[in-house]
Amino acid sequence: EVQLVESGGGLVQPGGSLRLSCAASGFISSDYYMEWVRQAPGKGLEWVGRARDKGNGYTTEYAASVKGRFTISRDASQNSLFLQMSSLKTDDTAVYYCVRVAKCSGGWNCFDSWGQGTLVTVSS
Amino acid sequence: DIQLTQSPSFLSASVGDRLTISCRASQGISNDLAWYQQKPGKAPKLLIYTASTLQYGVPSRFSGSGSGTEFTLTISSLQPEDFATYHCQQLNSYPLTFGGGTKVEIK
What we know:
- The complex is a heterodimer.
- By secondary structure, chain A is mainly β.
- Chain A contains no helices and 11 strands.
- In chain A, a hairpin with a 2-residue loop joins strand 9 and strand 10 (107-114).
- The radius of gyration of chain A is 14 Å and the shape is globular.
- Chain B is an all-beta fold.
- Helix content of chain B is 0%, strand content 50%.
- Chain B is built from no helices and 11 strands.
- In chain B, strands 2, 4, 5, 6, 9, 10 and 11 form a 7-stranded mixed β-sheet that branches. A 4-stranded antiparallel β-sheet of chain B has the order 1-3-8-7, with no helix packed on it.
- The radius of gyration of chain B is 13 Å and the shape is globular.
- The model of chain B has no long low-confidence stretch (mean pLDDT 97).
- The chains are: A mainly beta, B mainly beta.
- Chain A binds chain B through residues 35, 44-47, 50, 61, 63-64, 97, 104-105, 107-112, 114-117, and chain B through 1, 32, 34, 36, 42-46, 49-50, 53, 55, 87, 89, 91, 94-101.
């Protein structure tokens, strides 16, 4: 069974840093694109960034709102994905979801498995 | 950035109703669109990808259509478990973007 479990969320002051982890099981995460998607309280979904699969060199993409502040990394030996967040702002307050992307109909276009999410609260 | 506009943002409906939700893209995205269902306190669930392909295990009362800039999610006969928020997402170009969501509530 495919499972994604996020951890590392919590309360942090503006300007602070936090590292989120996503432990994958039931599949080899390095064979898939992996994403971070967030949702501010009572708001819609916002794509944060992507880490491509091993075959594509684990290269990354980021939303403009987090570029330069957030870094996505992977550890194949732990079958895990990470999100290093720095210079945090109150607008970064959200539930952060780890997502697996499968290759469907020839493209990496199926956000087919989501973790339960971890809440990050940025507040003084 | 490609903007996705969902309409309506809120919908009140009854069990058995036929429902249609629209998602309009600010520029053409071919068929690179997905639909998700989200219930309160839960993660989104993939319903449809490439605009019209039903994800494995999703009931056939859900269907998607469209291409270019206009897309539609249809629920042919609303069931009690379908009351939720629905999101569209474009995967055509970065940044990947989502629509604002459509909340479906019981009338």
